[in-house]
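For anyone still unconvinced, we reproduce a single protein record, the chain in one-letter code, the fold tokenised, and leave readers to judge:
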Amino acid sequence: MGDTYEIYFGSAGSGNPKERFAELVSAAIDAPLQPDDDPYRNYWAERDGVYFDLYSEHGMDNDAGIPFEQMPYSVTLRSDIAREEQLRIAEAVFERLREAGLRPIYLVWGIERTIRHAD
């Protein structure tokens, strides 16, 4: 991952399939996600120069106080726009996913710095 904004989230106890999470993320980013043949990335979308990648597993252990093992899903934001604008977009997506009931959910920068979370 690296120096990007990432949103990690759990399934809130539901047995929902990946497709349901793709629908939730698509609504949260206000852009249709496309299935991806990449073995690591399940879906992707682009909106206004920002790329969103949805992963259904990351294989990370709990670290830096972040319960990664409870959050198999993640959305990565990639863009060349200003970091402040990326943060604004990431926070809006985080809030929409939080409102959809996904828990736990963490917005982090570069994997180690927690920006916001809801357990």
Notes: Helices lie at 18-29, 83-99. Strands lie at 5-9, 34-35, 43-47, 50-55, 73-78, 105-109, 113-118. The chain has one domain: 5-118.
